[in-house]
Amino acid sequence: MTSLEKEAAVSAAAFGDKTSSAFKRRFMIRMIIVLTGGTFLDGYILGIVGPVSSKMTAELGISTVWEGLIAAGALFGILIGSPLGGWAGDKFGRKPLFILDMGLFVIASVMQFFVGSTQLFISLPLQLFVVRLLMGIAIGAEYSVGWPLLSEFSPARIRGRLMGLTLIAWYAGFMFAFVVGYLLDRYTDLGWRNILGTSTFIAMALFLGRIGMPESPRWLWSKNRVNQARSIAHRYMESASDMADMEREVAHSGGGFRMLFSRQYWRVTLFVSLFFFCVVTPYFAIATFADSVLQKFGLGGGLAGGVGLSAVALAGSVATVLLIDKAGRRVLTVPPQWIITVILVILGVWTDAPGAVVLGLFLAFSFFNAGCGTLTCIYPGEVFPTEIRGIGTGFAAAFSRIGAGLGTFLMPWSITNLGPSVTILIAAGIAAVGAGVSQWLAPETKGKSLSETASGFSH
Questions:
Q1: Hey, which of 119, 264, 269, 357 has its CA 20 to 30 A from 145?
Q2: What separation in angstroms does the CA of 414 have from each of 84, 280, 353?
């Protein structure tokens, strides 16, 4: 038994550990389901737009600018919701935001059914954009609260794997939505409003599943609510070492944006934000409009094209999750980004490449991008201390969505006006920046406790 485990055992005996290992395992399974469900839902609302975009565009008579804005509306909402949710989660606790953000999502998701059904003083495209913006705000809050909450409950030995599951859920949600949207659009009489509104059923199930979830013991400890922290930790946490590590955390004074950009943590903020930005920007732009991108390169789009990119991306994320707690973080972060850069340069330069080669390169891009992209939901929960774990995660997610939103918004315009070759080369440049920043700053956090990962990268 290690010294940490001995300390935890003494604390448990003194405080009274009243729950069984089976109870704790059931709780952890429930925690994983309701948290991965949030990222599944995020992927779903983004993926469902692609299959109905042409019908929606035709019915509303909207321009490519509005098409891009509606597709990117949720991304811009995340830009707002992530830092606000992170700030609120650090100040008021993870638990209340964990419920409120999903409640907002249920409301906004239901509103999709009624776009244009009532007379408002704003146009139909603007109504839809506002609804998607509200959904994005809810999802943004989900990132900045859900990921910290999962990292604060996860055992250190499998934390990477559990955190990585959230991105697997995202790709699964995106792919599932593309299939559902395509099939409903092609084989039913449902309008695009009803197809977009199918996210309501997922949101409601998650809202109900979150009722009664506990507060993060590490957050309580950071607020000097020691007895509550110990009570929840001994009731729900499996790892004695992690419980002892919580009690070794030293609460930092201050917090908020000032601490985020302090001398001690500016490198953490810079790395996580730029890494996140450069990974998601090319993917969102290409995957959201997979059908039109593949057709511009002379390939057939439709269900096979859109699902193919998402399915390979899902495989890349699964591969990373299986390796993350054995191989470590850096080896799965840095090399894949250089590979992505090379792939995109080839696609941009080799304009007359055979169709099979182009398709193979796009699939390889999806695989490696998703692989290193899995770290975007692992690093934030590990390298920020408890006092700014929420706002740090939220800021990084918001910064990334600037790129994702602009990429999704500008992709239709760029392909039309600059051409697919130049568009892909721009994506290659963004990927190269991410690779360089990760080469410089990406830390190795495999197997370390949260107090070690947060303090070790700040010096």
A1: 264
A2: 31, 18, 21
Check if the beta carbon of residue 433 is closer than 8 Å to that of residue 278. yes
* Domain 18-456, CATH among 3.30.70.260, 2.60.120.560, 1.20.1250.20, 3.40.50.2300: 1.20.1250.20
pLDDT per residue as tens digits for the range 150-180:
989 888 888 889 999 988 898 888 888 888 8
Residues 6+ apart with CB under 8 A from 190: 184
Write the CB contacts of 300 (distance below 8 Å, at least 6 apart in sequence).
294
pTM confidence score: 0.80
Rounded to whole angstroms, what are the CA distances from 186 to 231, 301, 305, 365?
53, 14, 16, 28
The gap between the terminal CA atoms of the chain, to the nearest Å, is: 30
**Residue among 24, 148, 226, 232 at smallest CA distance from 453:** 148
Environment class of 436 (CB within 10 Å of its CB; exposed 0-12, middle 13-18, buried 19+):
middle
- Closest residue by Cα to residue 99 from 158, 166, 149: 149
C-alpha torsion 85→90→91→97, nearest 10: 40
| DSSP per-residue letters across 379-446 | HHHHHS-GGGHHHHHHHHHHHHHHHHHHHHHHHHHHHHHT-HHHHHHHHHHHHHHHHHHHHHH----T
- What confidence tens digit (pLDDT) does each residue in 79-115 have? 889 899 999 999 999 999 889 999 998 999 898 888 7
Q: Whole-angstrom Cα distance, residue 413 to residue 419?
A: 9
The CA R_g of the chain, rounded to the nearest whole Å, is 22
Please give the Cα distance from 141 to 16 (Å, whole number).
34
Q: Which two tokens stand for residue 355?
A: 């169709």
What is the C-alpha to C-alpha distance for residues 140 and 163, in angstroms, rounded to an integer?
Answer: 17
Which H or E element spans position 184?
helix 159-187
Q: Which two tokens stand for residue 364?
A: 């390889």
CA distance 220 to 1: 27
Report how far residue 271's alpha carbon sits from residue 259's, in angstroms, rounded to the nearest whole number: 15
Distance CA 117, CA 130 (A): 15
